From TrEMBL:
Domain of life, source organism: Eukaryota
Protein name: NADPH-dependent FMN reductase-like domain-containing protein
UniProt domain NADPH-dependent FMN reductase-like: residue ranges: 4-144
An annotated Gene Ontology molecular function: FMN binding
A Pfam family the protein falls into: FMN_red
Native source species: Hypocrea virens (strain Gv29-8 / FGSC 10586) (Gliocladium virens)
GO cellular component: cytosol
């Protein structure tokens, strides 16, 4: 059976460049996914409109000792449960993980637990801090995070490429070229580590 792998856009504010980063990463990964019989789909967190966690039950207790009551939680839970692994696209805001990213992770526990995930971060300096923070959070909910974590920096730092992304939500040609040429293999490697993890599942702890 083909593995279902989600590329998750974790940014939600506007303007945002996340959907364009997803297109780029998706195109880079398609040949490898096709050769491994994996199916890729893009999941946009913004469409779920998750508020700050507002359920009366702790995520770790779902479904064994409770269930979600809000439709947004049920939709997010069902979406994440339907995939075997994930590639999270993570922006960095003010030297840290975006609130939307952290909130989406914290909404769930058992839907994530034991599954592989890769982190592709992006920002003015590559979003190293956000990548580290997300890695810690994902491992905390039981995900198996790929060792390779591509960090995509806008060429020129604080300059035209960054301003285009932040101000207009567009990915400039220089950024596309830089990321494809200098980080394409790294993005594929992180994905191959997902596939390897899927081929070697671990038993969940009780």
């Amino acid at each position: 059976m083909a593995s279902k792998i989600a590329i998750i856009i974790t940014s939600t504010r506007n303007p945002r460049v996340g959907p364009h980063v997803a297109d780029l990463v998706h195109n880079i990964l398609k040949p490898t996914a096709a050769s491994s019989s994996a199916t890729l789909s893009v999941v946009d967190l913004a469409t779920f409109k998750l508020p700050i966690f507002d359920e009366p039950v702790v995520p770790a207790n779902v479904p064994a000792r409770g269930s979600f009551i809000h439709e947004h939680s049920k939709r997010w839970s069902a979406e994440i449960a339907s995939h075997d692994a994930y590639v999270l696209l993570v922006p960095e805001y003010n030297y840290g993980v975006a609130g939307s990213t952290k909130n989406a992770i914290d909404y769930l526990k058992n839907e994530w637990d034991g599954k592989p995930a890769a982190i592709v971060s992006y920002g003015i300096s590559g979003a190293k801090i956000a990548s580290e923070q997300v890695k810690t959070s994902l491992e905390g909910v039981g995900l198996r995070v790929s060792a390779t974590r591509p960090q995509l920096a806008f060429p020129g730092g604080v300059g035209p490429e960054a301003f285009l992304a932040v101000g207009e939500g567009k990915l400039g040609d220089a950024s596309k070229k830089e990321w494809e040429e200098n980080h394409g293999e790294e993005i594929v490697q992180s994905f191959k580590e997902i596939l390897e993890a899927l081929a070697n599942p671990v038993e969940k702890k009780n």
